[in-house]
Amino acid sequence: MGHTNQPANNQFVFDGKLKGLTLGLFVLGLVCLVLTYATDSEYHHAIFWSNLLHNTVFFTGISFAALFFICVHTLGWGGWHTVFRRVPEAMMMYMPVGAVLVLLIGAGVMMNAPGTEMLYMWADEGLVKTDKLLQHKSPFLNPYVYLLTVLVIGIWAFFASVIRKISNQQDTYDNEGKDAKHLFKLRFWAAIFLPIAGFSSAFAIWQWVMSVDAHWYSTLFAWYASVSLWVSSVSLMLLLIVFLQSRGHMTGFSKEHMHDLGKYIFGFSVFWTYLWFSQFMLIWYANNGEETQYFFLRFEQFKPIFFLNILINFLVPFFTLMMNSSKRTLGTVGFIAGLVIFGHWLDFYQMIKPGVWHNIEHHMHAGHDHSHSSNYTSPEENGGGKAVLTYYTGADSLNTQADSTHTHAAGDSTHTHAADSTQHGTTAPATPENHDGHNHGDKGHAEAGHDAHAHGHSTVMGIHFPGLLELGTMLGFLGLFLFVTFSFLAKSSLLPKNDPFLEESEHHHI
Length: 510
What we know:
two-stranded antiparallel sheet, 18 helices, mainly alpha, 510 residues
C-alpha cells in the first residue's frame, strides 16, 4: 500500500485511447449544441443558450467545489485525503475553461444575441423600461455586472494554479516526508481563498442561475446550489479514483477512504434535502406572491422533474448509503456516485429551464409589446422599500392571489376563472398560433385562454424534460472536463510523496 512499493504506478499516462474517448464525447456535445441552435428557431434559440448555461455552470461549479475541498481540508489540518489529493487538484484546473464559456454567454447577453433576452429577462432593455421590479434590480442585474463573474472565475483559477504549483513543488523537496514549509504555504493560500470563495460563489450563482427568474429571489439559494455542486464534485472525485485504481494507480486508497467519501455523499445529500425543504417550506408558509411563483411553476408544469429531483438526490442515496457496509462496497457507492452526479445535473436543469420557459411565455404572449408587462408595486408605492411583484396577467398567471382568483383581459371583455389549477389545468404555453400580440376578440380569448386551461399545456423536449440533445450536450461537457482533468493528472505524480500527512493517510482507519 505504501508509495515506495510501486513507484511506477504513481505516474498517470493519458494515452491515445483515453484522449480519443474524451475528445469524442466533446465532439458529440458540440454537435448537439449546433443541432440545438439550428432546430430551436421557434423559441429564438433560448433552448441553446439555456443548455450552454446549464452545463457551463454545473461543470465549472464542480471544479470550484474541488478547489474548495482541498482548501477546507488543508486549513483544517486534514490528512486523510492526502493519498488522493491530486485528483481534486486536477479537477480544479478546469476553471479557466469555465471562464471562457461564461465570457461567451456574457458576450451574447451584451450583444443581445437572439434568445438571450429569454434566458435573462433583465437583458431585454425594452422590458426593463416598463417593468418596475426589473428597474429596481437593474443596478445588480445587467450585462456589465454579469461579466464580472468572469473575473470571479479568474480569481478562483488563480488560487487553483498557485495551490497546485505549491503542491507540486513539495515533490521536489529534499527532506522527504517532513516538508512542513510547503504545507504552511498551502494553509496560507487556503485561508485567503475560503472567505473569498464564500462571498464570490454566492454572487456568481445569483447572476448565473437565480437571475433567470428575475422576479424572484431566495436568501437560501446560494447555499442550496453550492451544496448541490459540492456533493456532485465529491461523487465525480470518487469515480475518478475508482477509474485510476482500475489502471493500477491509487494503491493507497482503501475502503476507509471510500467510506469517508461515501459519508460525504450521504451527509450532504441529507443537507441538500434540508436546504431544499427549508426553501420550499418557508416560501409555502409565507405565501408571498413574489416567492411562490417559483415553486408554483415548477410544481404545475414540471412535475416529473420536480419529483424525480427528490427521488434521485435524496431518497435513493439516503436509503442506500445509510448502512455502514454500503459505503464500503465499491459497486454500491460507485452506482450512487454516478446517480448523484446525474441527479444534481437534473437539479440545475430544474433551477434554469422553468424560468427560461416562463420568459419564453412572457415574450411570446406579449408579442414583444412591453405595454402588456406584469403589474408591480413600485418602491415608492411600497413606502420606499423594495419592489414587490403583485400578480401576472395573461400567460404569466403563475401566482395565486389572496382572493384565489385571476383575471384574463382580451379585447373588450374580461373573464374571471377560479385560480385552482386542479380544475382547469395549467396555463398553456404561449405560441405564435394561440397568441397574436395579445390582441384577441371574445372568441379568440375563449379558444386561447379558457380552452388552454381545460386542456393543460404541451410538453416541449429540452424544456419540460431533457431530450437527447440535452443529454448529448451534457456528455460533451463531461468529455471536456475529463480531458482537462486527465491532462493535468498526467503532468505530476499521483502521490504527493513529501507531504507530512502521507503516512497518516496511507494508514487511515476508522
